[in-house]
From TrEMBL:
Catalyzes the specific phosphorylation of arginine residues in proteins. It is an enzyme of class 2 (transferase). This is Protein-arginine kinase. Belongs to the ATP:guanido phosphotransferase family. GO terms for molecular function: ATP binding; creatine kinase activity; protein arginine kinase activity. Residues 25-256 form the Phosphagen kinase C-terminal domain. It comes from Paenibacillus wynnii. GO terms for biological process: phosphocreatine biosynthetic process. The keyword ATP-binding applies. The lineage of its organism: Bacteria, Bacillati, Bacillota, Bacilli, Bacillales. ATP binds at residues 28-32, 93, 127, 178-182, 209-214. The keyword Aminoacyl-tRNA synthetase does not apply.
Amino acid sequence: MPSLRFTEQALSDFMRSGGGSHSEIVISSRVRIARNLQHIPFPLLASLKQSEEVLEQLTPVFGGEEATEYGSFQLVKLVDLEDLDKKVLVEKHLISPSLVNESKGGAVMLNEDESVSIMINEEDHLRIQCLFPGFQVQEAWERATAIDDIFEETVNYAFDDKRGYLTSCPTNVGTGLRASVMMHLPALVMSHQINRILSAVNQVGLTVRGIYGEGSEAVGNIFQISNQITLGQSEIEIIDNLQSVVMQIIEHERNARERLLADSALRITDRVMRSYGILSYAAVLELKESAQRLSDIRLGVDLGILQGPSVSIMNELNVKTQPGFLEKMFGDEMSTTERDMYRAKLLRETLGTKN
């Protein structure tokens, strides 16, 4: 079993680094680049031997544990991981469920602060992911494309002069670029504007998903906004379009928060304080309720109703309250009731009483 560095402290270091702009609304920014190697079948059709060949070609580029300007990288093969460790990596957005459930010869390379995650033999041979706190799409893009350039100097990518970079899924052909932001939009939800806003987003080449991407639910008023189009636009156009739309959503959310305070200050204050009280003293908490209560508290802090936990602490709690992370922190193989009990314990210790 490998010695893994994806610890509770690694999460804290990343969430507390920089913060990024507009962090009261934008939780994180992510850029992912999909690439495949020439002359080797794409992962869905590749044999295990061919997948191992991909791994042999790609892993020396960053030298395993060798330090680079992006930090020291660790190679982790999924076959060497316990199921719980895989679950934690998914919850931290460092690997995808597809890498866990569908890949042959799957692996991931992580740098020390976990801002860079390089998945190998997922849906594509190579998926470079850069994750930054707050609204830092441009910064994430610059790092991702620099890492992409390093790989491209060493290996030959599958590329077509007309279609661009070739990928397993046609929706990724072209640039192979997916850029996204995770946004906390409670005021738009409370004011019943969210469906109108998200409908408009879909009409300008972007898509809206839940916290864990396609097919997931938007729990705790957290939505992931990302580009739909990868073909026919340049990388810069994709990034600029996403940033422009996100800035408009930020403005709508801020306006909705101001109206809530002006029109319903007592109701919002009561909602925030009730959620704070429940998280400070509850003995058992289900995931969905804790996510909603954390959303209320985060809004209360942003509006000045509470002098409560910082944005970085709230970001941490969104991850630490997930099932896999709770089991990693407090013990393996918990029942649902035990997880709900330890989730409540974690929140009490962070936000309120230690009892």
